[in-house]
Automatic annotation (TrEMBL):
<protein>
    <submittedName>
        <fullName>Alpha/beta fold hydrolase</fullName>
    </submittedName>
</protein>
<dbReference type="InterPro" id="IPR000073">
    <property type="entry name" value="AB_hydrolase_1"/>
</dbReference>
<dbReference type="GO" id="GO:0016787">
    <property type="term" value="F:hydrolase activity"/>
</dbReference>
<feature type="domain" description="AB hydrolase-1">
    <location>
        <begin position="10"/>
        <end position="130"/>
    </location>
</feature>
<dbReference type="InterPro" id="IPR029058">
    <property type="entry name" value="AB_hydrolase_fold"/>
</dbReference>
<keyword id="KW-0378">Hydrolase</keyword>
<dbReference type="InterPro" id="IPR000639">
    <property type="entry name" value="Epox_hydrolase-like"/>
</dbReference>
<dbReference type="Pfam" id="PF00561">
    <property type="entry name" value="Abhydrolase_1"/>
</dbReference>
Length: 308
């Protein structure tokens, strides 16, 4: 596992999503290291310079949580604060259920906790995918999306980063019919640089995917039902660790993928929810779009904890 590790002090571990690498957190790593924390951002399984097993079944949350526990053991830490976004958020939620003794606090961006649903995730998106394009469905068949995205890594990344940001309404991709590719469903992106993403930053992110392709990340989608099966013991569990939540006003997950009232569900199932912050006009990539606001949120939350 490749790990970006900077600073000294209490460990804070950052967990990224798709299609990201550790570099998505570079603003936060610098800010936390400067404030006296040990900021750690791994390339999660299947990404960047971390191993990418061939078997899609190797990408369950349970397996990657094992990677994170091994990381804590390797640095000699009993606990850490965990920060997550996108798939990294789901990882932090499940980690907090499976190993609450190892989580000093959970700090989650844009993907609120919700209880385990009564049916597997695919049951909820199957009918929607019959009516319009839906990436959750499109990504399930091994090889198809892998080939499309790997054929044009930079084109895909610019389009998906732009569409997920607060500068676009991602759910407009649902206006496209089923049976097309993801690049056909995504909007054309304006030329770089953008106000929140420089050409150099984009080149750093794109370089890894030009080398590895996207199969490792796509395999996380192919385990959504398997993750559901593996969490039967936690069906009624609540998040008991200290929790802080931040979201972008224009985040598509909050709008379209997290239920009718995601904040009410979050509050009902996270008894130690200490703060909820909305970032105006920000989208899904809030840590890049509004780094100062995210850094302030994290540092204030860390200061409020008794960490030793």
């Amino acid at each position: 596992m490749h790990v970006a590790d900077t600073g000294e002090g209490y460990p804070v571990v950052f967990c990224h999503g798709f299609p990201h690498t550790w570099f998505m957190w570079h603003h936060q790593l610098d800010a936390l290291a400067a404030a006296g924390y040990r900021a750690i951002a791994p390339d999660l399984r299947g990404y960047g310079r971390t191993d990418a097993p061939e078997d899609p079944a190797a990408y369950t949350n349970e397996a990657v949580i094992g990677d994170l526990m091994a990381l804590l053991d390797d640095i000699g830490a009993r606990q850490a604060v965990f920060v997550g976004l996108d798939f990294g958020a789901q990882l932090v939620w499940e980690l907090s259920l499976r190993h609450p003794d190892r989580v000093a606090a959970a700090m989650v961006l844009n993907n609120p906790f919700a209880p385990r649903p009564p049916k597997a995730p695919s049951a909820f998106w199957t009918h929607a995918a019959e009516r319009h394009f839906l990436h959750l469905s499109y990504f399930q068949e091994p090889g198809i999306a892998d080939a499309e995205l790997a054929a044009d890594p930079r084109g895909f990344l610019t389009r998906v980063y732009y569409s997920l940001s607060g500068d676009y309404h991602y759910l407009d991709t649902w206006k496209n019919p089923p049976g097309i590719g993801y690049l056909d469903a995504l909007p054309q992106a304006p030329a770089l640089p953008w106000p929140w993403l420089s050409q150099t930053e984009f080149d750093t992110l794109a370089a890894d995917f030009e080398r590895t392709g996207f199969t490792g990340g796509l395999n996380w989608y192919r385990n959504l039902d398997r993750n559901w099966e593996l969490t039967a013991a936690y069906a009624d569990a609540k998040i008991e660790v200290p929790t802080f939540f931040l979201y972008g006003e224009n985040d598509p997950d909050m709008e379209g993928f997290s239920g009718r009232d995601p904040l009410a569900t979050l509050r009902a199932n996270v008894p130690d929810l200490r703060e909820v912050v909305e970032i105006p006009k920000a989208g899904h990539l809030v840590q890049l779009e509004r780094p100062d606001a995210v850094n302030t949120f994290l540092l204030d939350a860390l200061k409020s904890l008794e960490l030793s």
